[in-house]
Amino acid sequence: MSAAPASPVAGVDERAQIHWVLEHCKTIAVVGLSSNVYKDSHIVAYHLQRHGYDLIPINPAATTILEQSAFPSLAALPADIAARVQLVLIFRPSAELPQIVDEALAHLPNLLAVWTQKGIVHEAAAARARGAGRIVIQDRCIRTQHLFSKFGQPAASPRE
What does pTM read for this prediction? Predict the structure, then answer.
């Protein structure tokens, strides 16, 4: 895998970090991706896939989602797939974030960022990821942010 582009450092505003993640993190492991087409995780992932992002579904109850092989956990990813993941997008309850972040840091050697969807926040888990040099975006809808970015709007609206 080629060297990762330089990422924004701590202290850079969230808009710049969001823009950087959307621009540079093209392979996304989606933890909690549902096979139900009416669930937010499926709708958001479908949008990202349509816009050229490479998705890796993480769901212990599925084998295929969005025509991609699904895996039960980040730890279950084969090494070649784990090495491609640049972003972990999380659609699981906040209480599960510490375990998911620890698993991501342990098993994804080229991880650049962790993103939690709207309403999902865990400051201690976020601090661990930031302490390991990863960008963390919490409590933001990546689809909304992608649309803002695509259509020239600010990358971060007031808590869409």
Answer: 0.89
Torsion angle (degrees, nearest 10) of CA 58, 149, 21, 19:
-160
End-to-end distance of the chain based on CA atoms, in angstroms? Answer: 35
Alpha-carbon radius of gyration of the chain: 14
Sorted by where each begins, the domain ranges of the chain are 28-150
Q: Please, which residues have CB within 8 angstroms of residue 18's CB and are 6 or more apart in sequence?
A: 137, 140, 145, 149, 155, 156
The residues near 71 (Cβ < 8 Å, ≥ 6 apart) are 56, 57, 58, 59, 77, 81
CATH topology of domain 28-150: Rossmann fold (3.40.50)
The string of pLDDT tens digits covering residues 37-53 is 999 999 999 999 999 99
Q: How far apart are the C-alpha atoms of 101 and 59, rounded to whole Å?
A: 16
Between CA 74 and CA 111 the distance in angstroms is: 12
pLDDT in tens, 118-129: 999 999 999 999
Binning pLDDT at 50, 70 and 90, where does residue 151 land?
A: confident
